[in-house]
Specification:
The protein has about 190 residues and is an alpha+beta fold. It has three helices and nine strands; from the N terminus they run ααββββββββαβ. Helices cover about 20% and strands about 35% of the residues. The chain starts with a helix and ends in a 19-residue tail after the last strand.
């Protein structure tokens, strides 16, 4: 094949490939968008800690839950309620959070004791807001929260898979006992106290 003819055929083949690619992209419809914004009013209220990657501030807690309530238009009051054993008194840690609106209400900065900031991100939430997956960007921390303190094994395993899909180190997740019967069961953490 003479050289000029070779270049013309190659050019036509390249144009055909580009045309096929363009048609393929156009037939897909809309470009997929990121996750939908979190509806903050629906997110407010009580969330039980079904599982977490234990760290010093929450290790050994039982009956743990977070309670969220609006303080201002862009501020949220956070209460972390827990016991160190089922026979121990309930304790509460208070914090405030500011919500980054440009993140679809998914990225929060929590302030404990007024001066210690912590990053917090809602990576997934159920359509009916019955469960949520949370992480701490850049740190090996994660939580599975639910409106109901009790969760069946099948749903829990499904959420562990979702957590893994979102980059949470799911192998380190430990279930938090919400009732005394869960203490000592496989996969559940041990309380600090009796």
């Amino acid at each position: 094949m003479p050289m000029p003819l070779f270049f013309r055929v190659a050019r036509l083949a390249l144009l055909a490939c580009l045309l096929v690619a363009a048609v393929g992209c156009a037939s897909r419809g809309e470009v997929p968008q990121g996750p939908a914004a979190v509806d903050l009013p629906r997110f407010m209220g009580t969330w039980h800690v079904v599982a977490h990657i234990p760290y010093f501030a929450e290790r050994g807690h039982v009956a743990a839950r977070y309670e969220y309530a609006f303080r201002d238009s862009d501020k949220v009051g956070v209460g972390y309620h827990y016991r160190e054993g089922f026979d121990q008194p309930e304790q509460v840690r208070e914090a405030r959070a500011s919500v980054k609106e440009a993140s679809g209400n998914r990225e929060w900065t929590l302030w404990f004791v007024g001066v210690v900031p912590a990053k917090w991100r809602i990576v997934d939430v159920a359509p009916d807001y019955s469960w949520a997956l949370i992480d701490y960007p850049g740190r090996d921390m994660g939580w599975i929260l639910a409106r109901d303190p009790m969760m069946g094994d099948a749903q829990y395993q499904d959420l562990v898979k979702k957590a893994r899909d979102h980059g949470i180190n799911a192998r380190q997740l430990v279930r938090v006992p919400q009732v005394p019967a869960q203490v000592g069961a496989p996969g559940f953490g041990e309380p600090k106290g009796p």
